[in-house]
Amino acid sequence: MKPLRTLLHGRVSKHSDHKKFRRWAVLCTISTALAALLYFLPNMRVHACAVAPTEPAYEFIVHPELPLGNFAKGKLGILRPQFARSYLAVAYRYLTDRPLNPAEQSGAIDLWNARLNYRESDTSINSWQAVRLSLPGVDSEKIWMQDGVKYENTNGNFLEYQCVTEDAWREAAHTLEQIIQKYGLNSTLVQNWTANQDIVFQDGSSGGQAFVMPTIYAENQELDALSRYQSACALFYGEYFDLAASQFSAIAENATSPYHALADYMIGRCYLRKATLPVNDPGKLRIAQSILQAIANDPKESAYRESALGLLDYIQARLQPPLERVTRFGDTLEENLDSVGFRSNLNEYTNALDKALEEDFSGSDANFDSIPYPVPDSMTDWIVSFQDTSARAYAHVVREWNANHDKLWLISLLSKTVSNKLSPEVLAAANTVRHTDPSWETIQYDEIQDLLRQGDSQDAGALIIADLHTSGISGTLRNALLSFRMATATTFEEFLKSAVRSPIGFSDESDMPLSTVPDTDAASRQRDRLSFDQDAANIFNLRLPLDLLDSAAYDTILPKYLRFDLLLSVWTRSVLLNNSEIGMRAARTIASEAPSLADPMLTYADDPDPPHQRMDAIYTLLKNPSFQPIIYSGYGRLDRNGAWWWCQDVVSGTNLWWNGDTVLPSPPPFLTRDQDQRAQHEIAALQSTGAAPTYLGRATIDLANKFPNDPHAPEMLYRAVMASRYGCTEDSVKIDYSKQAYQLLHTRYPSSQWTKHARYWY
Q1: Do residues 273 and 163 touch, judged by C-beta distance below 8 A?
Q2: Exposed site from 143, 469, 615, 690, fewest CB < 10 Å?
């Protein structure tokens, strides 16, 4: 079921569209090339493109609001079917009034951090890195790249797993500290062992598969044992499991080796890893099971009995059918567990559920038909039916609601109501949930969405206002309520009040939670600022006529920095639409607020000759690629990675830069018929201008012919060529205008400095 915002505005989540990343990569290439032009294009801002840009996030789709610790404590916010199932399993406990104890909360957070690759919580690897970096001549970058994560590619199927466990990092750090203390920091023995250990961890960190040949120390039993064990571990991490098992067997048979008992356990791990990479092999799993069972049954192996039992449990789970494993771990998760137990069972539960649904990761590819309703355990029954969008799941939810009338199934019912009108019974149940209940935000969100979808804007509006005045609501719910109110605004003032939002965090293109604080200077400036979300930007860009945009640019409802951003768009749009009255007013205001732009803006505003005033405008646009005819969401135009002229799809509305695909949003209720018609007429006119290089190239050639003696003419022709080179438009069109501008520059102004710089047309 699409969220209301998609239904009302054609909105696609801006955190899940990979096309934006491809576009960003192309634009980064452009900005790198533009750096060479800084001398000639002094107004251009160019930034490095080392990583994909992060954007303010106003909602998250696949995970809860940050910090995740709040979710673990029962502050669930808005639950979404797209959430990873580890979050929904925790939510289930709170929705059934069985909150997680502190240890379970810690276990859940540890699992989420591990899955999100938040290494900060792993002190074991930090301890190894600290002692390793204490040695002289260390390549710190190589050490930091040792993360113990291995990647497998089997017939195009990629598997990521934690190859080096925490106890291995811890044991290596302890061993290195011991031999440094005994043999000295600069000892050859220490250096050799450390170099070999780097190879061991390289093989366990997506590195090569290199052998570490043991150094035989006939005169030193301790070093000899260390070296032999290290060599076997290198084979293990390098995935030479048979050779590793053979070396571990030799160590196990040597009663004088301090590793002989551990070696028995490692033999079992060799067979277990061999049995599970790249997929589970039941026959090999049973061999590993027999080896580990012998360790668990042998009193002499007591030091490793508990670990062996844990691996036996792991094996047993994989020998069971997936749905049986789901039920087993699901039942366990409803008990009170310690931190390690909860993390382990939550991990096994979600892995088993993924397998039962025939997918590798939680997402839209799940085969919900593979699980019959009702599911044997109640947790899985709710999670699966909550995520399943089929009619079969809806019927199951209705049956469960009719039988139980509890908030658990109320949430599922509200999330699935599409064409069925909410019954008085359902509405009454939703309205009895107190705002302190973990389910309240989800129920409010879905109830309002359903009411609006069914055309009941009066009841929905009353809930929106009441909820906005409720203290302690999450940033996600507040932004959602503002989005609902904006979509149903009956006055322009109400629209503007609802259009500005506060970011709840910062995210990359995959919707992954980077942090609650920004990671760039631009984001730092934005952290405490209100800004436009994409749904608001879509209305500004594709539904409002120029006079309303102009009005918004002077309305004190909006923060000053947003009004200035609007002014730049209003002025640019007025130039494209030949509305000099609005353009001159905007230019004078821009000049008063931005001294660096005062000269070009006042030159334009004070020019008494309309044709030459147009030349002033085109000259300014050529020198300021960041001027755009649209309003941006998030950071806004001036805080983006680079600045360049607009593309055709920007003014056509098919793609608003990298903010996500969009279709024409529905007209807001406050818009009159006349305003709507004027807006659509203007949008059509903007679309006809094409991309900036096309529009600017055509206009420059025309103006250079009208005003051949204007001192700016040669520079404009040069910049038109550069816009064609670094802007985006249809190849045949931009080549045509680039060639015309180049030829006119070289034939008419052969002695100009701009002619000398224009060596090519593109």
Answers
A1: no
A2: 469
Burial class (CB in 10 A: 0-12, 13-18, 19+), 310: middle
Task: Supply the pLDDT for residue 400.
Answer: 94
Backbone angles phi, psi at 424, to 5 degrees: -55, -35
- Please answer whether residues 580 and 613 qualify as being in contact, where contact means their C-beta atoms are separated by less than 8 angstroms: yes
Got the DSSP string for 105-126? HHHHHHHHHHHTT-GGG-HHHH
Three-state secondary-structure class, residue 613? helix
Strand order in the sheet with 55-57: 55-57, 505-507, 513-515
The per-residue DSSP string of 527-561 comes to: TTS-EE-HHHHHHHHHH--HHHHHHHTT-TTS-HH
Q: What is the pLDDT of residue 732?
A: 52
Q: How far is CA 86 from the centre of its chain?
A: 18
How many residues belong to the chain?
Answer: 762
Q: At what angle do helices 475-487 and 534-543 cross, to 10 degrees?
A: 20
CA atoms within 13 A on the CB side of 655: 15
Cα separation, 285 vs 281, whole angstroms: 6
Return the pLDDT at 735. 64
Residue 88: the pLDDT is: 97
**DSSP conformation class of 89:** H
Residues contacting residue 689 through CB under 8 Å, at least 6 positions apart: 576, 651, 695
Q: Which two tokens stand for residue 115?
A: 């899955």
Long-range Cβ contacts of 382-387 (<8 Å, 24+ apart): 382/92, 382/95, 382/408, 382/409, 382/412, 383/85, 383/88, 383/89, 383/92, 383/353, 384/353, 384/357, 385/412, 386/79, 386/81, 386/88, 386/411, 386/412, 386/415, 387/81, 387/82, 387/85, 387/88
Helix (H, G, I), strand (E, B) or coil at 359: coil
HEC profile for 204-242? CCCCCCCCCCCCCCCCCHHHHHHHHHHHHHHHHHCCCHH
3-state secondary structure of 363: coil
**Please, what are the averages of pLDDT over each run of 10 residues along the chain (762 residues)?**
29 30 33 31 32 68 88 95 94 95 94 71 75 82 74 59 82 91 89 88 75 80 90 90 94 91 92 86 91 88 83 82 84 86 89 81 68 89 93 93 92 79 85 93 92 87 92 93 93 95 74 47 57 90 95 95 93 96 97 95 96 96 90 65 63 43 75 95 89 91 95 95 79 71 94 90 74
What is the C-alpha separation between 12 and 6, in angstroms, rounded? 6
HSE (CB half, 13 Å, CA atoms) of 542? 24
Helix (H) or strand (E) holding 500: strand 500-501
C-alpha separations of 450 from 1, 409, 540 in Å: 11, 16, 26
Answer whether 653's CB lies under 8 Å from 10's CB: no
ω before 278 within 30° of 0 (cis)? yes
Amino acid making up residue 45: R
Our CA dihedral for 672, 674, 675, 678, rounded to 10 degrees, sits at: 160
